[in-house]
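User: Some background: our group keeps a shared notebook of sequences we're curious about, and every so often someone picks one and asks for a predicted structure to add to the entry. Today it's my turn. The entry only has the sequence so far, pasted here. Could you supply the structure so I can complete it?
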Amino acid sequence: MVPSTTRIRCVSTLSHIDHGKTTLTDRILELCGAVDPRDMREQFLDSMDIERERGITIKAQNVRVWWKEHAIHLIDTPGHVDFGYEVSRSLAACEGAILLVDATQGIEAQTLANCYLAIENDLEIVAAVNKIDLPAADPDRVASEIERVFGIPAGDVLRISAKTGEGVPELLDAVVARVPAPEGDPDAPLQGLIFDSYYDQYRGVVSAVRVVAGTLASGARLRFMQAGATHDVEEIGIRAPASTPVATLGPGEVGYLIAGIKDVGEARSGETVTEERRQAPEALAGYRDPKPMVFCGLYPVVGDDFADLRDALEKLRLNDSSFTYEPETSGALGFGFRCGFLGLLHMEIVRERLEREFDLSLIATAPSVEYRVRLTTGESVEVDNPSAMPPPAQVDVIEEPWLTAIMLLPVEYTGTVMELCQTRRGDMVKMEYLSEERLELVYRIPLAEMVVDFFDQLKSRTRGYGSLDYEPAGYAESNLVKVDILLNSVPVDAFSTVVHRDKADDYGRKMTAKLRELIPRQLFDVPIQAAIGGRVISRETVKAKRKDVLAKCYGGDITRKRKLLERQKEGKRRMKSIGRVEVPQEAFISALRLED
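Assistant: Of course. Here's the predicted structure to add to the notebook entry:
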């Protein structure tokens, strides 16, 4: 059944993490009869094992359901700040958004960020208070909070329970009534926007496409406008939620496209497709590439897997275009890639997907950020790898990236969160009460101080009630130094890092003490040093294995014993001058563990 344009509604679900988007999608699938009750399971659209294990949505998923003779294209989006790029791509394929707010927790940081994103995209927002079945629910308070913050009248805010299904039919009625139908001329030249893709080893690239104008027909010859490539359509269809082939997709419809594409670079997100024989006059706006915030090196444990890692990164980037990679070489770890991510969770997920989906074993170096270094010659360079930092004598000024961190938390945790921000070199921008119980704190904090465990600390200090959103706030000059770790006087690039001068001594002591436990004993003493330029700030020594060369001496002249000991000492000295310290892979993995 092909719907007319007036009977199509395209909506995304938006909320803070864990406010019930995926559960609501499950209830809608049940209510609309899209899934057989025998096949129904929780997190139905979450297709990755990693999503099910962690209980979070990582990839946006789309589905078409029928409600009272209207086709609703629903896109379930992630809630975590690191996957905001998925949300922004999904909103470009919609005319409306369902904004969910937890009835017990109220507005959180990502609620604000995602709602403002929808407002910027001129979407019609249907607000709903979720989890009204919980004993601690206070939907009236949350509805008045929504009215005060977003200006949506409290009377228009729906009360629902995605878990029990209460209020969900009324929500679908509101979507049909309030969200405008898509505009688009079915007879115009075809313009389709690819907003997601993944690689299938049997069918090539499978793309999610939203038809903006014209009609996408099976068997047509398409031109991919940005890539400049042409391909014949092998299959088009809709997800309902099973993949269902159709003959055509008209304006406003969302579906999938398979055109036998083997080169993953030809169907990236933001690509515009049009017909070869009747091309659209211009490409659609597409998406702005996101700027990576966190960088780390990814190296295969087995050097022979380098080519497999390169292929895996290329295929994964098709499905997640928000990370970047380029080849790099490390003296300690061999050949690998320098990868950029939107955040720490994003980095963790990409690494885990590479290991699971492509059967790789990887070592990740410590996360770092991109610094701007002004040299004494006046030249400016960008450095995303601490080992590439120029020598101190050549550096005039180092600038580091800062963020504006927006934290929403209960009032009673204000003091402990302010202390956290100040220990991370944060400057307060503003403090605003959203209600008597909830507070908004805004700080400017260096990105490097937030990279590792800031979010975990915020959650533990607020007993899970604090939430965080952030946005880039430019670069600023800081008193930073590069700390090198030397084994037997040879720098190990994988352990280099850039820290604030006040914290350099502490980092050096911790790292040398940790490596002393991890590095196996050699036949000679191994000094482990932390140094800033030529100045050593910390040292530990792995003592040598010692053979008892006097075991066969039963008494006799002392000079014979001294002669044997001197010979042993000379042998150790010669070995130390030519010896190379082998650092086992386990030592790298343990020393670079994020939680430490």
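Suggested note for the entry: The chain has a mean pLDDT of 79. The first strand starts at residue 8 and ends at 14.
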